[in-house]
Amino acid sequence: MQLLHNIHHIAIICSDYPISKAFYTEILGFEIIQEVYREERQSYKLDLALSGQYCIELFSFPEPPKRVSQPEAAGLRHLAFSVTDLEAAVEFLEIKGVSTEPVRIDTLTGKKFTFFADPDGLPLELYQV
Predict the structure, then answer these.
(1) Which residues, including other chains, have CB under 8 Å from residue 104's CB and lie 6 or more apart?
(2) How would you classify the pairing of strands 123-128 and 79-83?
(3) In a domain, 32, yes or no
(4) Domain that holds residue 90
């Protein structure tokens, strides 16, 4: 029996909900499936899809603690998104005010990739397929 079938979703906790909501929807192009405010937790839960597939839960909580991410730390290293034209994607992000690292080449696959960050500094990657 195969235990796992696929990744269901990734949960991200943000420190400034309106800024992160705009980043993931208006800049990265995620579609809103559902947005719920949970009064008892003073928390938003935003379900997001990419190309019609549910994949991210964006949460807000009052004053979440900062996560250590630089230098490399144990835990989730980054979240990667595939693109067909890396240069066009980098140009689009830069027009939107999102800085990216210099484009690199994966020494194992020969594919281009780069890193950038969400509003809370979560490392994100664009990987050309």
Answers:
(1) 112, 113, 114
(2) parallel
(3) yes
(4) 76-129
Task: Tell me how far apart the alpha carbons of residues 120 and 76 are, in angstroms, rounded to a whole number.
Answer: 14
User: Tokens for 42?
Assistant: 């003073």
Structure tokens at 46: 């935003």
Residue appearing with tokens 């490392």: 123
pLDDT, one tens digit per residue, over 71-91 is 667 777 899 999 999 999 999
Q: Which tokens in the block code for residue 60?
A: 């807000």
pLDDT tens per residue, range 23-62: 999 999 999 999 999 999 999 999 999 999 999 999 999 9
Cβ neighbors of 15 (< 8 A, separation 6 or more) are 60, 63, 64, 119, 120
Q: Decide: 39 and 85 in contact? Cβ < 8 Å.
A: no
C-alpha closest to that of 78 among 125, 111, 121, 118: 125
- Is pTM beyond 0.85 here? yes
Number of independent structural domains in the chain: 2
